[in-house]
Amino acid sequence: MSQAQTQGSNSFILTITLVATLGGLLFGYDTAVINGAIEALKVFFVTPLESDHALALQVIGEYKIIISLCFVVVSLLVSSFMFRMYGKKKGMIYSGIVIVAGIIVWYTQFWVSVNEISENTLNSINGFTISSAIIGCIIGGSIGGYVSQNIGRKRGLVLAAVLFIISAIGSAMPEIMNIFGAGTITSFIFYRIIGGMGVGIASMLSPMYIAEIAPANIRGKLVSWNQFAIIFGMLVVYFVNYIIASSGDDGWLNEIGWRYMFASETIPAIIFLVLLYFVPETPRFLIMKSREEEAKTLLNKIVGSEKAPGLLVDIKESLKENNAPWLTFGGLIIVIGILLSVFQQFVGINVVLYYASEIFRNMGSDTDTSLLQTILVGAINLIFTVLAIYTVDRFGRKPLMIIGGIGMGICMFALGFAFYFNQLGLVALFAMLGYVAFFAMSWGPVTWVLLSEIFPNSIRSAMSMAVAAQWIANMIVSWTFPMMNDNSWLTNQFNHGFTYWLYGAMGLLSALFVWKVVPETKGKTLEEMGRLWKK
């Protein structure tokens, strides 16, 4: 018997990991493509509302309906989580409380207040248009557990690839693809939500697929490659956006150029869809579906014939309670999963990734310069993600997360003071780049490593709750940033510095949370994690 058969094939593991990371690449591409089009979308969709009263009233009406529908969908998803955690009786009570509280907030803070064309309303519509994909991400992340349990990890990624293709075409041509007869902005938002569903599914299934394929000793490194792919996708689209923006003047970009930005996503999405045909399903899903011989053959390729039988027994044992109630291992694991996700967003990373060009314009850069500086942000993000990949299995998850949280907090406070004192030169630039570096070496990749590791096999689908929480937090941050950053009173008082201080405080809190609450998962098999939580 050859050494490869005895020990497993590293080349096989690496190949299927790289295909799975294309889900991460599309995640990054889809979420960052908006960066180069922010100003163009505002000019194309929102600015005309200031002078066309009838159009503004139509858009406000459709906007209120969209938000209300989104509220209903998210409420149903939250209710389903309550039932999975607490069972039918308690789940009904808790979901009822959440829904009633949500209705009160929705009615008082949204439905009644958004009735006239004001600065806040236009900023809110602009913020939602930019961040609307995140509603889809919440939906996709929420159903990710159901998708992974029923059609599988591989087919779930195929579904994500198809959604990416539909979104790219629809977002680029919202007038032609307007199947509802609503306003063009509503059609655009619909297709961005479709793309967001693809992102939400891929954001859960790509790291889950890799974690279930990877041997324990290199799992942290391989799952971190998914974050590398996310950042690489962002960097690629930053270059694509820059090339497209350089192909014409601002008038052309605002009318035509932004369409090419969204359409360009069809290329990596089609490549991903084709390559998925050649990868296997994960051994844990195969065993779950009683396809033991296929799982055994696959485990021989992954860990070798010596370790495969023992791992097969461990997986079968851990799956005896397949699809168990989510509170089987107690509530702490759910709280940790949710807070890891929420802190990853509340530190403000997606403000930097989505609004980098806008932030640089606030610093005084023109469009081309701001897009070039955005590429620099992407490059720093990529370089320091590589640092995390090569240290996460050596130093462990917790040290990287604590160092990263403290570093991000300090850099965000520095950036806020740079804006406050109007010192927007090298200090502000280095503060932003330092912040991105600390995030990339810690909370960027390592959060996904921890989320893919902490949930035992019998409640793997509970990861969907953490992923949904991450996208809800992302939505809150992305939607509120332009509302705070463009608010006249806050700008007069703090000169754009206020929001960055908020994110700085979250960075420090995130470090404290990991230090006090999160367990170390370095070197443990997914089955060992189940035994850890039982203790």
Automatic annotation (TrEMBL):
The keyword DNA repair does not apply. GO terms for molecular function: transmembrane transporter activity. Residues 16-522 form the Major facilitator superfamily (MFS) profile domain. InterPro entries: MFS_dom, MFS_sugar_transport-like, MFS_trans_sf, Myo-inositol_Transporter, Sugar/inositol_transpt, Sugar_transporter_CS. GO terms for cellular component: plasma membrane. Its main location: membrane. SUPFAM superfamilies: MFS general substrate transporter. PROSITE patterns: MFS (PS50850), SUGAR_TRANSPORT_1 (PS00216), SUGAR_TRANSPORT_2 (PS00217). The keyword Transport applies. Keywords: Cell membrane, Membrane, Sugar transport, Transmembrane, Transmembrane helix, Transport. It is found in: Cell membrane. The chain crosses the membrane at residues 12-29, 65-86, 93-112, 124-145, 157-177, 189-210, 222-244, 256-279, 326-356, 371-392, 399-421, 427-451, 463-481, 501-518. It is a multi-pass membrane protein. Belongs to the major facilitator superfamily. Sugar transporter (TC 2.A.1.1) family. PANTHER family: PROTON MYO-INOSITOL COTRANSPORTER (PTHR48020). This is D-xylose transporter XylE. It comes from Labilibaculum manganireducens.
